Amino acid sequence: MGKKTGLFWNLFTSGTFDTFPTQVRSRIIFLNTITIVGLVTLIVFSAQAFATGIFPLGMSTAIVSGFVFFVFLFIRITRFFTFGAYAIVTIIGSLYSYLIWTGGAEGSGVLWAQTFPLIAVFLIGFAPGIPFSFSLWVFQGIVLLLPQLNPANFSLSYSLRVLGTYLFTFIFALLFEGIRSSTQKNLLKANEEIQLTTLELTHEKNQMDSIMSSVQEGIFILDKELMIQAPYSRHLEVIFERSDLEGLNFINLLRGSISERDLSASQDFLELFFTDNPNLPLLNEINPLSLIPSNILLFDGSMVIKYLKFTFHLLKDKAEPHVLVVVYDVTEETLLEQKLAQESVVNQRNMESLFQIIHVEPDMLQDYLADTDEELTALNNLLKAEDGDPAQIVLQMYQSIHAIKGNSTLLGLTEFSIKLHELEDKLKDLLGTKPGWKMLLQLTITLGNLRQQLDEMEELVQKIMTFQKSEAGVQPAGLLGRTLQRLAIREAERAGKIIQLNLENFKPEALPETLKKLIKDVLIQFVRNSIVHGLETREERLKSNKDLVGEIKIDLQEDSGSLSLIYRDDGRGFDLEGIRHKALENPAFKDMKVENMDEAHLAKLVFHPGFSTSDVSTLSAGRGIGLSLVKHRVEESGGTIKVRFLPGKFTEFIVKFPKMLA
Questions:
Q1: What is the pTM (predicted TM-score) of this model?
Q2: Domain ranges of the chain
Q3: How confident is the model at residue 129 (pLDDT cuts 50, 70, 90)?
Q4: Residue 568: is its pLDDT beyond 90?
Q5: Given the DSSP bridges, would you call strands 550-558 and 499-502 parallel, antiparallel or unpaired?
Q6: CATH number of the 343-456 domain
Q7: Coil, strand or helix: which one is 208?
Q8: Which of 144, 276, 346, 586 is the most exposed place for a label (fewest CB within 10 A)?
């Protein structure tokens, strides 16, 4: 049924006529209707004429049918409906003229002619339809009123009635077309006005929709109950990853996204907008949602953190006040600022590291980085071990961090040394305890941060290595010797002392590779201890009739059974009573009967973890871990350590390693 309806509609509208105005569309349908109906009628009449033996009428009707069919095809193909209308009017007018002239079947020609004014005026319009219709009326009058031309021999009264009827139809067609045209114009004008108004309203709505859909901010209005009102910007749904926002309580929207404390503060803050005469400048200053991280639930159930910035504006009207809220998703900007801040810290750190290491020898830097990497890797493996004793882990970390700090201070890496010093403070508080997994996790994270900073430093070192090597020039033989000389000069300047480091009998190249790092760590600790604790100031040495320049002497001796490292300074030696006094003050030694200890046992206290004669802790000394670390690592490697001293004269450490270890 639908296909049949579509076929008929296609025939009567010539396929399409949507591009034509309304007043033209009706004429197109009328034109096709007249054409199709006329064509069918003409074909029937032509067949009837031939069947009854009226060949002239049948032939003429058939010819007219052909013209009508041609016009139908022409206007369907070309869509030239004006030509088609004039052609149909002309054809019908000619056919009616022929019928009037010949009388038609039983004198019916004049009856067909009565319809012409309606066809002509409606198809081709008011003005051109008048001459066509009037011409056929005149032609009909001539034929009917002249007896010699009257084919049907109509009476005069009948002929006048026929002419009067045509005239009446003519006038009616003119009046109808005039009224129809006028009404159609009025309707068209009203329709245009409606369309214009609709367009304006649509334009305004589209503008509002465009604004609300294109703005990159969440814009909405809150009523006194803090309910989100419609309309709101589409981007609000993008920000909060949900579409059911209309009529939702704003506080409930935020619940779960921010802390309960911020949520409560936000509700109290918003309620102030609906009080009498709210202080708007103050409200803008105390806005708790000016920039806040929010946990946003995504459609897939996962959470994402967005940084949101809210601004609030009071709207007053006759009914009740409302609050206009604008929310900005500033996640990208905030993360970028954080990244830039982090990069700024890294760049600042790199600059400080650059200034600190620019004049350090390349080999010394590489040696330091390798040793520090080894220490951190060992600590990381220690923390990963499942069966490790937490107390022992803390002690070993404490010792390793102290060793790394000493090497960092040696190279002048002040910032890195300070961080290590702060970590030492934390570890010192944990000594003797069994920290839980949370504390161990924090220590692991701290080590990771140190590793990252070390990697940055290593990258920086690699960048300037070529420059440093080209500037290094000729250096004294032996990296360890140069390292000790550098340490001695730096620590002496810091302590305000004058020293001389005697390495005449110390040949670092004779050290086996397995002991080089250990010997370096031991000697760094010895040198630092001598300068901070052992060697006197110039004034003290002057009073003791000593040379103003303190001497540190390092010897390396090798015999058939062992390798001996002999370290000696000509300082004040051990202050045994001072050691006893400090031990008595330290709760860690309360069970050792320090007050009754002999000199040998008092001297051994300097190797005890946590013992120090310094009152304060600095980057150079005061932790009480240096000599303890030396003794632990020497004995761990199979060696031994002894100390000899003479108060006021010297202190000497003797470190021995079996030849088989070397």
A1: 0.46
A2: 2-188, 218-329, 343-456, 481-658
A3: confident
A4: yes
A5: parallel
A6: 1.20.120
A7: helix
A8: 276
